[in-house]
Amino acid sequence: MTDYKNLKLIATSSPHIRGSERTQTIMLDVIIAMLPALIFACFNFGLRALCLTAVSVAGCMFFEWLYQKVMKKPSSVMDLSSVVTGMLLSFVCPVQMPYWMILIGDAFAIIIVKQLFGGIGKNFVNPALAGRAVLLASYAGTMTSWVDPAVNKAAAFGSNVDIVTAATPLAYMKGPDAAAIAASFDQLKSTYSVSNMFLGQIGGSMGEVSALLLIVGGVYLIWRKVINWQTPVAYIGTVAVLTFLFPRAGTGVEWMLYSLFGGGLMLGAFFMATDYATSPVTKKGQLIFGVGCGVFTVLIRYFGSYNEGVCYSIMVMNLFVALIDKYTKPVRFGTVKSDKKEASGK
Amino acid sequence: MNIGRQLKEGLITQNPVLVQMLGLCSTMAITTSIMNGLGMGVSVLIILTASNVVISAIRKIVPDKIRIAMFIVVIAGFVTCVDLLLQAFVPAIAESLGVFIPLIVVNCIILGRAESFSYKNGVAGSFFDGIFQGLGYTAVLLAMCFIRELLGAGTLAGVRIIPEQFPVGVLTLPVGGFLVLGFLIAAMQWALSKSKEGK
């Protein structure tokens, strides 16, 4: 029986049904999804990978707290978004980089790219990628010397003296002409097998090397409905198709597999291109966004001066998001196309 | 004319770079070291003042329809003088500023002030307008040079302040110029809106 006496009438405006999802829970899911890759990085590059990530996360949280303290704004440190930025930034840096350097990247990502443009949800490019772009432009030498995981699995901890650097697979896949690329691609195939590439026993940025574990993390995010499949599938699919159709050496399939598993494609497609604030809202828009990222990635890898194009391709497409959203805006229920035209004409 | 108000307009409320958004090209291109900024700022200040005075003096006899051409002739004359003087006495600065000194001819600050101020006002007012607007331009240049040289190259006027491996090199690249200028403009707008609210 309903207890009418004690029944309180609460009149509020909608929404009346709330989900349990918060920014915090979403960010926590992203962190969980990145953990396998982080554990693998420690296994691959030694404990310094963990230290670098910890410093980067602490730096991002500190700068977020500091800015909001100075500007007297409510603190958003506990929504964990700065933790994700810190982890992502450390994932796209070489493991032996000095700690102060990643702190500069953190400061740029959090204070300039995120907070000065209005904080979480208002940044126009991915903060972690912008941080990496600044570090790459400022300290090109450190940012492009990679540790060979086979040689210093343990030695990389703490010291950055006796480190053997190795070229990344993508460096082998670039050359002045077709013959040079063919020769270095053969060398790459004899150095790393496809399974090496897939599992991540290769040189490269700290968290980007293991395609397998990044895919596991990405599938977890899709399963938890944190991200849609559209962006990563369109992104990776575009790169796959383009590299399969236009191999620069070897067979199409070989070239495609090495292109997919080398470099930061998996990390970028699952964790960076899907950032809510800097990707389109509609599913159609996300498909367009992913295809654009893929095209730019392949173009930069083939014709640009850098070996890797994931970072810049996502940043370029970030700038197109407003435009994509504008042209993929769904028609309101009950209106027809001509109404829409009229409405937009006003 | 009110000199105090002109000074305030030139430096703050009508600052040529941060408020009127004139002369942005040279501002971003040459502000990589304090000496460059100083050389450019003083050059513009001299040319702006001199051309303001001359244009104001001849404003009654210049036909309206060909005034822009006349402005350019006057400005180009002074730019040539300054260019040659720099090459003769401070060749190092002339070298590092390169094409940007001759390009002062088409710098919109000078043409803008000629069109909007000295063509309509007396010689004395135009003289002070040139000095104050030039000072406003120089101040912004120096602020940008200070930020970009100190943080981007780790030096100030060539003296090393920050050890070589630390500076954020991106600030001395063109993208750094855009970033620093953007944030200076934002800071200026923020300050102006704050002071308006206060009134």
Give your account of this protein's structure:
With 346 residues, chain A is an all-alpha fold. Chain A has two domains: 23-143, no CATH class; 168-327, no CATH class. Chain A has 16 helices and two strands. Chain A has a two-stranded antiparallel ribbon. The model of chain A is unreliable at 153-163 (pLDDT under 50). Chain B has one domain. Chain B is 70% helix and 2% strand. Chain B is built from eight helices and two strands; from the N terminus they run H-H-H-H-H-H-H-E-E-H. In chain B, helix 3 packs antiparallel against helix 4, helix 3 (34-58) packs across helix 5 and helix 3 packs antiparallel against helix 7 (123-153). The chains are: A mainly alpha (346), B mainly alpha (199). Chains A and B meet through helix 4 and helix 5 of A and helix 8 of B.
Strand content of chain B: under 5%
End-to-end distance of chain B: 24 Å
Low-confidence stretches of chain A: 153-163
- Outline of chain A: globular
Work out the count of structural domains of chain A: 2
Order of helices and strands of chain B: HHHHHHHEEH
Secondary-structure-derived class of chain A: mainly alpha
Form type of chain B:
globular
Strand order of the largest sheet of chain B: 1-2
Q: Structural class from helices and strands of chain B?
A: mainly alpha
Low-confidence parts of chain B lasting 5 or more residues at pLDDT below 50? none
What is the residue-averaged pLDDT of chain B? 88
Task: Give the helix level of chain B as a range of percent.
Answer: over 70%
Total DSSP E strands of chain A: 2
Produce the secondary structure layout.
The complex is a heterodimer of chains A (346) and B (199).
Chain A: H1 23-45, H2 48-70, H3 81-91, H4 99-115, H5 127-138, H6 140-143, E1 146-147, E2 165-166, H7 169-172, H8 178-191, H9 194-199, H10 211-223, H11 230-245, H12 252-261, H13 265-272, H14 283-303, H15 310-327, H16 337-345
Helix pairs in contact in A: 1-2, 1-3, 1-10, 2-3, 2-4, 3-4, 3-5, 4-5, 5-15, 10-13, 11-12, 11-13, 11-14, 14-15
Chain B: H1 3-13, H2 24-30, H3 34-58, H4 67-89, H5 91-97, H6 108-118, H7 123-153, E1 155-156, E2 159-160, H8 174-198
Antiparallel strand pairs in B: 1-2
Helix pairs in contact in B: 1-7, 3-4, 3-5, 3-6, 3-7, 4-5, 4-6, 6-7, 7-8
